[in-house]
Hints:
heterodimer; A: mainly alpha; globular; disordered C terminus; B: mainly alpha; two-stranded antiparallel sheet; about 70% helix; NADH dehydrogenase (ubiquinone) activity (chain A); quinone binding (chain A); cell inner membrane (chain A); ubiquinone (chain A)
Amino acid sequence: MNTTPQILRILPEVILTLVGVIIMLVEPLIAKSSSRKPLGWFSVLGVIAALAGSLYQYQLPSGTAYFGTVQTDPFSIFFHVLIAGIVLASLLIALDSAPDSTPFLGEYFALVCFGAVGMMLMSSAVELLLVFIGLEISSISTYILAGFRRKSAKAPESSIKYFLLGSFATAFFLYGIALVFGATGTTDISGIAQALGSSTTPMLALIGVSMMLIGLGFKVSAAPFQVWTPDVYEGAASPVVALMSTGPKVAAFAVLLRVLYGAVPALHLHWVPLLWLLAALSMTVGNLGALRQKNVKRMLAYSSIAHAGYLLVAFTALSADGIAAASFYAVSYAAMNVGVFAVVSHAGGYDDRLTLIEDYKGLAYRSPLLGGAMGFFLISLIGIPFTGGFFGKFYVFSAAIHSGFVWLAVIGLINSGIAAYYYLRVLAAIYSKPAESSPVMAVPAATLPLLLALLITVASTLILGIAPGRILAQAKAAAATYPVINPDADSAAVAGR
Amino acid sequence: MLIDSILTLTTFVPTAGAVVVALLPRKGRIIQWWTLLVSVVTFLLTLHLPAHFIYGQSGFQFEENYAWIANPAIRYHLGVDGISMWLVVLTGFLAVAGCLASWKTVETRTKEFYFFFLLQQTAMIGVFVALDMFLYYGFWELSLVPMAILIAMFGKERGPKTALKFFTYTFIPSALFLVAILYLYAKTGTFDYVKLQQALTANGSLFTADALGWVSLAFLVAFAVKVPVFPLHGWLSDTITDAPTAMAMVVAGKLGLYSILRFNLGLFPAQARAIAPLMIALSVIGLLYGACIALVQRDMKRLVAYSILSHLSFCTLGIFSFALSGLNGAVYQILNHGLSGSAMLILIGILYNRYGTYELSEYGGLAAKTPWLVTLFVITTLSLIGLPMLNGFVGEFLVLSGSYAHHAGWIFAATIGVILGAAYMLSMVQKIFYGPESAMITRHSVADLGFREHVILWPMAILMLVMGVASPYWIKAINGAVTGLADTATQTVTYTADHLPADHLPADHLLEKR
């Protein structure tokens, strides 16, 4: 059909699979007593190669491969690059904070690579079954990673909880696919969009889409499907949380965009109110939940629920701006959240020496660099201008208001006002005087991988806030992949809700 | 010589200075000297504005206008007019004073302090010069961060709590303010202040009256909290008490008042007029309430905090009178208060530095020991209570006389506030400096003002006097900018020499009116 070699369409996935397999093969050859860190650096190189591979795909004309199951287009590349960036930073974080003595550290790096393959597949698949396979690859890797810290009592709990609820959600997703297939006779995204016009059972498709929404809602931890989040984040090691609070979520958001805007734009009158509700609930539940937390990781878990809510706001906008805003927000959320976990995992260490907000008292006194970086990420999470967090929020709510959802914006921004309180508690703790025997005094000095991870995340957060032009342009190009949903006469009815 | 992009320079020189501070070693007083140098340079740059300001020209000057982000249409648009110009200069001036005032009071964590101190300067100047709503909002929010962090770091044991209170108080209304900005953008397609103003006046059908009412209210509440206007002043006394002096000097007043003038009056004149009776009532209540509370304070920093509430209410009173002289007086009063209020905070900071307490009852009979301190303290006090010849009088007089025609009853109440103001300020002076010498004063023998303190305070005292007798120099620019905002249609106050002392109105303005 097209002259592009098919393998180039899945180049980043191929690279990462090879890297993962090589790590698995080499790991047993290394003496038991020696460090696994070189494998980590190897995986870092692999991810950089995958990143380059994704960027290379910009040279290719948009198109599908392997019987129309994967598609490279500005949208898929955008998310590939983002996922590669997240994985890169989280590998560096793991290299920084996981001690050499961690059992199966080699497998850890391999699993991260495999997980990345799954996430990337999710963003480029245009065939629901392949989406599902990507989802499974990414989920199974993260289930294992969540329980990686076997000696801690909370890790197995975290892993099991994540696994059980996650598979439940995946089942919903799969069932949704089946129903959509029943309604339209195809699992191909663009095929569904075409078949939906002539489908005699659009209700069936709608139910299917709602099921998929539930499944993906679990993955992005949108309320009311968020209950697992705080427990899992608390139990898992911080480098893992850095990855799983961003990577799989970003991929799930890509799928959600693909499905809603690619496959079922015709049903927008029905799904927009659902997303409205999900967004409003997630923001409120996330922020109110976070207010009560004393544990930093649990607080950040609730904050991630709230941020999923902000991102979902963009989905309701229906315009190209909405998709671009969602994509942009995904980037800025990833940058600041990975960043904050970089500091948390270094300061708290692999075994969570610092857990409570109290424990962070005086971090900026112990290390101005760590304290300053954490402060900066918190400020971005609050949404103070000249950071990525602000511009993301600004863009999302601007798109929503453009489409007439003023109330959703009011709910969202009041929420962000409330959110300022709990982020600031941490910020104030960081900058207040530590007690003599405070645990922050034992925080080790920053290492090279941590510095690299901080450099990546701080720079991206700052650039996204001050000079977002280029990334905005890429997000817009990604959004242009989808047909514009006409805000026709009946959308006035939606806007009124 | 006219410098291109002077506003960008003025705004970002402190940021560049802050970056250097972060890299400087923590040795000796290098960081202080560097910050002082940056502040002086910034101040000199701000002086460039009045030197090259073209009087009588309406609209904005020194404009810089570039595209920043293509879509959403955000521009990097800076400019000043007669209102903002002097506020920029004031900010530059207070930065130097603040830096000197912190010289010895901030001994630990100097790097953090001066880093955030300089960042705060950028944020404040940015608020005054930004003419793009997005940019403006950026600086507006940014101005909270260094403040909150410094309060948390330096506010004794209550610091973190106060910082939280201050931040959430101002941040939550700002969230609604952002909704309002985005709503305006959705309807008009621009963030640019000038274009927005045109769109709002030219195209009334774009908005329903209700929507505009809510939008302007969202603006007003965000600004009123920051001023603060009664009853939104809950954060003020703790913040003033716990913030380091250099920060307390700039936390209240000018940012919020300027924004009310610029946006509520500039963009929503009809809505601002509709809400004016309420605002006038709140101003007068705030004025009296602040004065009454100040009267019973035993802690001098709290006393000053409530006096700030009282004084700033004068400004809102003048603004919402919509009379030309009221507006002139309000802007002038912002400058006065920036100057004299800061001097007062520095002075009680000096007392605290020497005696370690703000408790009034501990003091007494200090005058004999520190003649210089008492001189400056009294001058500042007199300026704050509005003694003729000093700056405070001009502002208060213009406000009261301007608003009198329409709001005689309220103005009557406000003048009672003036009397109460004299009462609490003078009784504070009396308690600290006169009467029998207290045990604490006898126990600790302290030095009078040092060289550095003289250097900070004398220019301020001289300015108080100059601004008291040569007000037309400042009002000339202010008047040009506020004329468009005043109620010209229903102008009942006639500006003749027998209404106002001639030297308190610009001469050319008098000619125009005749």
